[in-house]
Amino acid sequence: MRSGTALLLLLVAAGPAQDQAITLSLALADTLRVEISLSGRGMIAPGRLQLLRSTSRLDGEPYTIALPVTVRTFDKQAPGRLNLTDTMVAHNVRYHYRVRLLGPGGRLRWSEPDSVDIPDAELGRITGSSLLIDKLNYFLEVRYGGLTRKRYPVALGRDPRRRKLHQDNATTPEGIYRIADEQPRARYHKAFDLDYPNLADRTRYQAWRGAGGKGAGIGGEIQVHGQGIDGNWTHGCIALRNEDMDELFEHPRVGKGMPVYIVGTELDRGDIQSILDYRPRVEIIRIQRRLAALGLYEGKLDGEVGRGMRRGLAKFQRENGLPVTAQLDRRTSQLLADD
Description:
The protein is of the alpha+beta class. It has three domains: 9-118, Immunoglobulins (Immunoglobulin-like), CATH 2.60.40.10; 130-267, L,D-transpeptidase catalytic domain-like (Beta Barrel), CATH 2.40.440.10; 271-338, Muramoyl-pentapeptide Carboxypeptidase, domain 1, CATH 1.10.101. Helix content is 19%, strand content 30%. Helix 1 crosses helix 5. The termini are far apart.
């Protein structure tokens, strides 16, 4: 099931293209800062340019190695030189970059690949820390005091962008978790077991079943484990290199009970912060009253975010075309405040 690896895709918005070659050059400006320069003859036409980044080599025509991880859109034509910055990289890894240019008649041209080595960093003291897994940028970030301490490159499953809803051996969950257990000897080197499914996951799953979803169970056994990052090969777990798992296991502050935040296509860092934010009881009651007025909540106005309120939030999100998170994520909170 090895279907891909970490990629960065930058799109420039639609328009006519010129049949031209693109030259790519890279420079490491800081530990986690890559400066990217693209140059070509005349104007770089919008809608025709893709810049791919990977932890694997990008030789040939790499169509099938993975889905794109990040998309940035530019709505104007670029001159003959375009300068970009990539700060969403991990430590101690070589990244490979390559440009694809779509010419007239669908003709494809590729730049020569280029690569850059990101240096290592010390993990150091991390009392009261957390782990953040960024599915779109393919790294696990150790955070301490709200700041990045170190990043490790990761691999995911064969459907890396979609948020896990039920058992499928392909997708990775998003949300707020904890390390439930440690396995110093595991099938894939070493492993941290995550407490998936949590209450939010169960509420989402029940909402899906209530809307007619059939078949698969909710699934489980989501881990952060070793065995390498050579392609998106897991069943929805997060894979690291064995030496990186060794480093995490050896640190006395990394282990059971540690918070793990997973962000991706449905939940971003702002959503996680919104869910974690303290809300006074009076605010929760106001939201419960609003959901009740919409016919989405029948419980007590008790100021507690319990099962009934989570079900009401899931219904509200579905009716308003939002990702069903069953939590007070950023967009849901804003929409309820506007109401």
